[in-house]
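User: Assemble these into one structure.

Assistant: Restating your components, then the assembled model:
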Amino acid sequence: MNRIANFLTGRLLSARWSSALAVLLLAGVAEAQGKRWGPMPPASDYGYRFSELFWLITTLCTISFAIVVILIAIPMLRDRDRKGHKAKYDHGSALHDKRLTAVISVITFVVLDAWVLVIAMRDLREAYWNVPEVDEPGVYQVEVLAQQWAWNFRAAGEDGEFGTADDILETNHLTVPEGRSVSFQLTSKDVIHSLFLPEMRMKRDVNPGAINEAWFKPIQSGEFTILCAELCGYAHYQMHGHVTVLPEAEFDAWEAGASQLAAAGYDPEDEEAHWAWDWEQ
Amino acid sequence: MTTATTTSPAALAAREEVKTRVDVTLGMILFIGSWTMAFGTLFLSFLVLRQRVGVWPPEGIALPSFPLASVATLLLVASSVGLHRAVKRWEAPDSTAKSGAREWRFGVGLGLAFAVLQGALWADLWAAGRLPQSGLYESLFYGLTWIHGLHVVVGLACLAWAWMGLASGRYGPHRLSTVSNIAIFWHFVDAVWIVLYLGFFVF
Amino acid sequence: MSGDHIHPEPTNFFRKHVFSGDHKVIAKQFLWFGLIWLGIGGLMAMMIRWQLANPGEAFPVLGPMLFPRTDGVLDPATYNTLFTMHGTIMIFLGLTPLMIGALGNWCIPLMIGARDMIFPTLNMLSFWTVFLGGVVGFISLFVPLGATEAGWTGYPTLSTTVGGVGMGETLWAVAVFLIGASSIMGGINYMTTVIRLRAPGMSWQRLPLTVWGIFLTSVLNVLFIPVIGSAMLMLILDRVFGTTFFVPASIMQGAGGGDPILYQHLFWIFGHPEVYILILPAWGIIGDMLSFFARKPAFGYRAQVGAMVAVTLLSAVVYGHHMFTTGMSAMLGESFMLLTMIISVPAEILFFSWLHTLWKGNLRLTTPMLFSIGVIFVFGLGGLTGIYLATIGTDIFLHDTYFVVGHFHLTMAASALFATFGGIYFWFPKMFAREMNPFLGKLHFWLTFVPLVAVFCIMFAMGYAGMPRRYYDHTSAEYLVSLQHMNKAATHAAFLLGAAQLIFAFNFIKSRWFGKPATQNPWQVGTLDWTMETPVPYYNFKEIPTVHTGPHEFSHPDLPEGQDWIYMTERIGASS
């Protein structure tokens, strides 16, 4: 199956560049007017996959729909009711009609569905649902506690253990290192939320009473967006924030500093702030 | 109109009755199908939620009384048997209005007895301090048995309605569809209870 | 039961017009009921669009009247109530009563050759139950602690007391339950009627596609409404009695142990068949109407029926595509993706059949025909966008964005609505013995079609840009501010769309009382409903007809010269 996906990807390599170009062009034009028509360019290592697949489907759908519109327009113009004009009496139950229907169905399924299915399966297994192993080295682990209406992020800090005094806590803001995989374990305090990082092309629901997993790897530094993508009450639209991606060296410095500050300011009495769980499968 | 082989009023009435009986029974079967999906959903939810919990039934809490529930189950099954026998007697070719009356009364009486024991089961658990909000087991037990209980109440009302109709001569061998369908509904209520009994008290 | 004999006509006003068992009266009750609620739901949509384009500004004219406390501005809680009720109303109180209640009730007995539905009293009860459901839903808007705010999907724990206490959400659940009960009653009635009361000669292979569509919808109603009924019961128990079906232990301090995701499974096991419940009647109706107005047989009648049956059978096994981001296992997700793509194949077959029905026909572009062709267009567009959502690789980004909103409005709302309008224009002459104005009808079509396509296509762009749905204000998050121009454009188109419906309202009401008297068969169509005089007598058929011909025998070569149609009770080639 991998071979099929790679074969199709080969075909798409040009699509990757052209879709990236399209996105950048649109983004550029739009920025000039203060109006945007598409998403901000991808900032994660698997982010390119979304636009690539999106534009592939768009191409296929545009061609299909154009055919449909033509097949509607021709009868509407050519076969209108007028004097002397007769309809062709045909129930469509002849063998060749059934064959035609079957053939067109198979072709449509293969072109519109199966092709896209194979690529999606590859994307899921290689990227979106390919969460790093629990003990994989080099992965930056973040525990996320969503609540009405804020995002609480917890990093293990310098000691690498969750639930200790030097855990770095941020609210509605997350600092991560560039070029390292960021792995999330997510849960909610109250209702269902959904962590949506549009530039990273990442989205995962955050459920109360359960822990979900997600991940992404930022490939450029800068400020990016956090949005909530599951209705969670009347301030659902206000549950947004930012992700700051720092280059490796800067991040290490930040982490050390933040860790020390956290340890210094640790209040053993503050029960509510001590949400954390052991990072296991 | 209809293809008639004999046109005597009695024969026509009898044929009308068969056609009507099929019509109404078909509707009843669809209704039972629909309600099976409803209780199926509840029971599926029970199974899903139950298997998420490590220990079942939860330890250290008062549970509904197994003897009480078992006796209630036997009464309900017997009640269904009674109703079934009653309908069969009325369906026999030379039946009269009285033919199934005794079995019907027997069935209704046992049905009432079941309802009383069901009430006792709840009262017993409630008195032991286990309320709907006490936890998952109670949620499932009260939730499912209350919904079933609503159907028991409706069923008993229908059984009483049928009884009155039979006594007044409105229903009888000449017009059995309503009565037989009410019996089908009662059998359904019985079957759902058996599933609940197995789920809560046996497995 | 309504068998072969003609029962006496009721004389009492209440028995004749209010608690009538006559399917034609009940159809009209559902029709007025559905149209009024469609208007209310549409007004809510206008308010939603207004707020999105002009955040924080008072809704013109009606705003200060309806929301005096905030001087006509919609606050976030009100806004959430509006989109919740918009969805609930349009689906349950608008489209369902119109297509299934009104058109289903009108068409089935008349098209199969029966005097009435097989259970007239059940029929009457089904109307008053949905009416009661509407009343409860309406009341739920005014309770002290606030109305429902959890979306028409009502996901826990937001819809449980964790999200908010009070009777608002509870009464919403009760309303949905009652409306569901009405649908089950109707479903049992329709199925039994079609199985048992078809006239002699009306075989399953001669059944109009309209009847097939409504029959299959009834199968789904009977089987899957109970699922949401039970889910609502569990939700009500959680809210009122403190049970924990959907509330996890972490929130209840250990006493709980429920699962909010269980609700999502139950909701969508109902929810996906529900969208087919809404579209099957539409597919049936246009299957017939394209044939009627192309003056040639419905292409691939067997294929169309087979496709509808296939979709009915598969409808419940694709539901997981609503839940791809919940954290399901990869195997489960991929299975749902594959199944969802497979279920598109029967829909594609229907599509080819419709296009082939038009091809080389003799097209009469009447108002019902325009709406039927409109269905092909909007369903095609909407259906194709389903591919993006079935494909998990794109769905991850597009889920809960406006892309989804655009998709389901085109496939579900627009398609079903167009078929409904088409049906109303088509059957109006027989229902009310008057004709609707054809010019206004065509104007209504074009002024609806263009803005509608505009609104929902803009939403595809919004979704692609990453704009989430169910947001009160898209200018709060910096990422979304530069997308605000799309909100404004969509709102302009939406208000045009809303205004165009006034043409229909005017035409409908004026024609109902002052329209030109209708002839017996203005469309020259051969189905049994058109064999009767106008207005239709309360007993429908004086004598139960015998059927000899199919419903789509247009332009048959053996028909007499100058006539391209034939009644189903006649024979082709017999001396006329």
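The longest strand of chain A covers residues 140-147.
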